[in-house]
C-alpha cells in the first residue's frame, strides 16, 4: 500500500513540474533581435554576446534536478552552443580615392643654333658693311655729266652722278694689290644673276675653282653684273658683303647685292665708267 502511495506522489510531482516548466517557457519573453545585431553601418558579421554561464546547483543535473527544482538542466548547455552568424546589413565599401598622378615633367627644349665658322654667318653679319660704305646721297662738284659712273679706287667708293650737283655714293670692294687698274670704260652689257666662267689667268692661280657656275645666290658675281667694254672686268654683286671696303678682288668692282640692283636699274648700256 505504501509503495503505491509513493509511486503516485512521484507521478504527481512529475506532472506538476512539467506544467511549471511549460508555464515558465510560455512566459519567458524572446530575446530582442537588437541584442544580436550591431549597427548596419559596420558591414561585418558579429556574434551575439554569450549568455552568462548558469551557476551549478550541485544536484548533478539530469531528470532528478528537474523534479526537485523545476529548472531545465540543459539551458546552460544550449547557451554555450554557438549561435548562427547573423548577417548585418552590408554597406558597399567606400571607393578609394584615386591617387593623383605625378605631374609630367615638361621638357622644354631650347632650339640649337648650328656652329658657324669664325669668318662666316654671324661674325660676318656684325662687320657686314661699315656705315660709311652704305648707300647715300652726297654733294658732287666734279666735271662728269649725270649718268656717269666714277670709281674712286683708293677710297673704295663708286659715284653715280646725278643732276643739280648731287651723286649717289656706294661702298665697293676693289682689286687687291697687283690687280687694281684705272681707265675709261663703258657699260657694254647688263645681266641679272649672271653665270660665271673664271678666266684662264684665274684658273692658273686657282685650279680648284669650277670651270662654270650657274647664276644664283652662291655665285660670286651676285645678283647683277655690268660688263665693262671687252675687258674681263665687271661691276657686280657679291655673296661676301663683308668684303665691301676691302681690296680683295681680282680687279672687278664688287658691291652688295642690294646696291648693285639699285645701280643696275639706274644705269643704261653705253654709260661711261671712269676708274681712278
Automatic annotation (TrEMBL):
SUPFAM superfamilies: L,D-transpeptidase catalytic domain-like (SSF141523). One of its GO terms (molecular function) is peptidoglycan L,D-transpeptidase activity. Pfam families: YkuD (PF03734). Gene3D superfamilies: L,D-transpeptidase catalytic domain-like. Keywords: Cell shape, Cell wall biogenesis/degradation, Glycosyltransferase, Hydrolase, Peptidoglycan synthesis, Transferase. CDD domains: YkuD_like. It comes from the Bacteria. Residues 147-276 form the L,D-TPase catalytic domain. Pathway: Cell wall biogenesis; peptidoglycan biosynthesis. GO terms for cellular component: extracellular region. The active site is at residues 236, 252. The keyword Transferase applies. PROSITE patterns: LD_TPASE (PS52029). GO terms for biological process: cell wall organization; peptidoglycan-protein cross-linking; regulation of cell shape. Signal peptide: none annotated. Belongs to the YkuD family. This is L,D-transpeptidase family protein.
